[in-house]
Amino acid sequence: MVLDSPVVFAYCAVLMAVLGLCMGSFVNCMAWRVTHGESVMHGRSHCTTCGHELGILDLIPVLSWVFSRGRCRYCGEHVSGRYPITELVSGVAYVSVFLVYGLSLETIELCAFCSALLALSLIDLDSLIIPNSIILFCIAVRAAYIVAVGVTGQGDVAMLVRDTLIGGFAVAVPLLLLSLVMDRVLGRDSLGGGDLKLLFVAGLYFGWMQCLFLVLVACIVGLVAGPLLRGRSKPEDADPKSFPFGPAIAIACWICMLAGGPVVSWYLNMFLI
Ligand SMILES: [Zn+2]
């Protein structure tokens, strides 16, 4: 196995870190454009204050921000620390997935999923919306993974499709029904439509058993982070009691990627002894 060599393993890990950092930079740009109604595909990166087009030196993940001391090189305006933090989180996510899954189709699939989760978290934090385009991207990545498994003969595609679909519907449908009841009881939206769609996607990726663990983790993260986020500025037409639940689900997805399988096995083994 090629990764048995520590040098090759370390080299691959560094490559994944660099790729993750660069994708974090792209995610920053994409999330900002979606939130501000700009085209994702067209137009060059620019300063959000003075509009000056950014050169190659301004686009080096983390380092550009550090060396410019968190300011735009052209207008001197403060640049949010959220940009390098997002890039670092992306780098850590890519390396962590590589450490668990090695050089595999899962690593490609889950790194793409991580980038989508990061993008939707940023957009949800700013606008309390999880765009359908990102949900569809996640579904397309999962479908491409299943096709790749079939083409390379690495697994039973029929079983994978079955588990994927059961995972998606088995958790999302009961949660949809529960949220409809809660909406009636509370007289307002309890769980956003985007959150439900994201939990459906999580079920597609992790199966129904891990998805139950994921919902539990997301609720804990949401309970801890919710009060902190509630005071944030939000769109004028937003419910004052609402807060972005997407980032909590995204964090739970990441934990599930790294430890969902062992946690569910450990839990089931407690009942088998
Ligand atoms: Zn500027």
Concise synopsis of the structure shown:
The chain is mainly α and 273 residues long. The protein has helices at residues 6-35, 63-67, 82-101, 105-127, 132-152, 157-186, 193-230, 246-272. The chain folds into two domains: 1-103, no CATH class; 128-273, no CATH class.
Order of helices and strands: HHHHHHHH
Q: What's the helical proportion of residues?
A: over 70%
Radius of gyration: 20 Å
Strand content: under 5%
Q: Return the domain count.
A: 2
> What molecules are bound to this protein?
zinc ion
Overall body shape: globular
| Overall pLDDT level | 89
Low confidence ranges? none
Span between termini = 35 Å
Report what the structure shows.
There is one protein chain. With 273 residues, this protein is an all-alpha fold. It has two domains: 1-103, no CATH class; 128-273, no CATH class. It has helices spanning 6-35, 63-67, 82-101, 105-127, 132-152, 157-186, 193-230, 246-272. The chain binds zinc ion. Zinc ion (ZN) binds next to loops. The site of zinc ion has 8 residues, from loops.
Secondary structure layout:
Blueprint: H1 6-35, H2 63-67, H3 82-101, H4 105-127, H5 132-152, H6 157-186, H7 193-230, H8 246-272
Helix pairs in contact: 1-3, 1-4, 3-4, 4-5, 4-8, 5-7, 6-7, 7-8
The structure holds zinc ion (ZN).
Zinc ion (ZN) binds at residues 47, 49-50, 52, 72, 74-75, 77.
